[in-house]
């Protein structure tokens, strides 16, 4: 992801009754009112109305929201306004952009309550606590179970499998330069094959007929044959999406199916972690700390899966049956150090574009 914006969640927003935060919008400049705390985020942030109302009642703060497009755009805006931030807390900077935010000095250190319940592997700024891990998810190749059953072909499981002739012309992915899932998939191949091998992999993937489109919505809902929203009109049974897409496909279906209509190639996944942080120069620092504590509380963390279709950062947060029954647990996702991504991201995107889009 240029960030991992939760487009999968927005696709099913109507089905789960997602609600916007109170007081959305505003002209920026932080929280001038001591009773108001402002959360800056990407467009896909959501929370249940009752969960937010409980925090506002218990804390005495009214939460307002400033949404700034996808995560990459939101981070760029935060960098441009650093020192005089638009709000008090930022939600949605992930491990592909984390080093930039830290190097730019966007955040003030704060150790949020409940951090002991977050696995060490998610705490990428553990020593200084400038950011707090709040959720994680995986970008993986999804497959249309019906297609592979009808054609009596086993679906792919790994990056290597995607190069096999049996999958020629079956995969659609997103443009690394314009899509966060597309970039995450590219980063996954870099993590797998290394600096010396990823370009060779993509040459072979291109020769095997991979299709590239601008964004997730086009890839999943227009080109993927397994998308309920696309009503099966697409002709690509393989798509780069989220490990949480299969539960999203089941949401609201009656009767409940025995298994999701789509599956996940677990050996193609890249782990993305989202963080929140207290913005340096926040006008309501006390309120910002209270809001960060709320974002890491069990009440909010247990609300996360069905609101944003990602996993809660807290290991003691309950996950809904929809996730446990229909989701795929990714035990060994690929990953890259945030500093490595920041150092090489633009060069890697240019190399990928030159290689794949010509």
Question: What can you see in these coordinates?
Answer:
With 358 residues, this protein is of the alpha/beta class. Helix content is 35%, strand content 18%. The chain has 15 helices and ten strands. Helix 3 links the parallel strand 1 (36-41) and strand 2 (62-67). The longest helix has 19 residues, at 338-356. 53% of the residues are buried.
Short summary:
35% of the residues lie in helices and 18% in strands. With 358 residues, it is an alpha/beta fold.
Write the SSE topology.
Elements: H1 7-11, H2 13-16, E1 36-41, H3 49-59, E2 62-67, H4 71-80, E3 89-94, H5 98-103, E4 107-108, E5 132-144, H6 145-150, E6 171-174, H7 180-193, H8 198-207, E7 211-213, H9 216-223, E8 238-242, H10 245-250, E9 262-279, H11 285-295, H12 298-301, H13 304-308, E10 311-312, H14 321-326, H15 338-356
Parallel strand pairs: 1-2, 1-3, 6-7, 6-8
Antiparallel strand pairs: 3-9, 4-9, 5-8, 5-9, 5-10
Query: What is the number of helical segments per DSSP (H or I, 4+ residues)?
Result: 15
- What is the CA–CA distance across the termini? 22 Å
Largest sheet: 10 strands, mixed
User: Could you report the average pLDDT, rounded to the nearest whole number?
Assistant: 89
Multimeric organization: single chain
Task: Report strand %.
Answer: 15-25%
**Total strand segments:** 10
């Amino acid at each position: 992801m240029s960030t991992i914006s939760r487009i999968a969640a927005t696709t099913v927003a109507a089905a789960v009754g997602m609600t916007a935060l109170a007081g959305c919008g505003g002209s920026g400049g932080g929280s001038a009112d001591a009773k108001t705390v402002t959360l800056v985020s990407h467009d896909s942030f959501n929370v249940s109305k009752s969960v937010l109302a409980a925090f506002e009642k218990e804390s005495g703060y009214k939460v307002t929201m400033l949404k700034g497009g996808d995560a990459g755009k939101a981070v760029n805006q935060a960098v441009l306004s650093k020192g005089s931030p638009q709000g008090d807390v930022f939600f949605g900077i992930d491990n592909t952009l984390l080093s930039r935010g830290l190097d730019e000095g966007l955040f003030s250190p704060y150790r949020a309550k409940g951090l002991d319940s977050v696995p060490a592997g998610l705490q990428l700024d553990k020593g200084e606590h400038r950011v707090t891990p709040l959720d994680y998810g995986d970008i993986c190749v999804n497959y249309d179970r019906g297609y592979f059953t009808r054609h009596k072909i086993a679906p792919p499981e790994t990056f290597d499998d995607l190069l096999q002739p049996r999958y020629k012309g079956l995969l659609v992915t997103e443009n690394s330069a314009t899509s966060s899932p597309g970039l995450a998939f590219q980063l996954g191949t870099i993590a797998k094959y290394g600096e010396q091998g990823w370009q060779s992999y993509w040459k072979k993937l291109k020769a095997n007929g991979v299709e590239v489109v601008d964004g997730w919505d086009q890839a999943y809902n227009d080109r993927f044959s397994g998308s309920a929203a696309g009503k099966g009109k697409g002709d690509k049974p393989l798509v780069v999406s989220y490990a949480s897409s299969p539960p999203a496909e089941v949401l609201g279906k009656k009767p409940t199916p025995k298994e999701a209509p789509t599956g996940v190639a677990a050996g193609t996944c890249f782990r993305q972690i989202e963080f929140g942080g207290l913005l340096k120069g926040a006008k309501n620092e006390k309120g910002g700390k209270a809001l960060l504590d709320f974002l890491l509380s069990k009440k909010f963390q247990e609300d996360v899966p069905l609101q944003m279709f990602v996993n809660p950062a807290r290991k003691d947060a309950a996950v809904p049956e929809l996730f446990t029954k229909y989701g795929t647990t990714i035990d060994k996702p690929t990953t890259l150090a945030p500093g490595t991504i920041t150092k090489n991201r633009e060069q890697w995107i240019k190399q990928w574009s030159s290689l794949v889009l010509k």
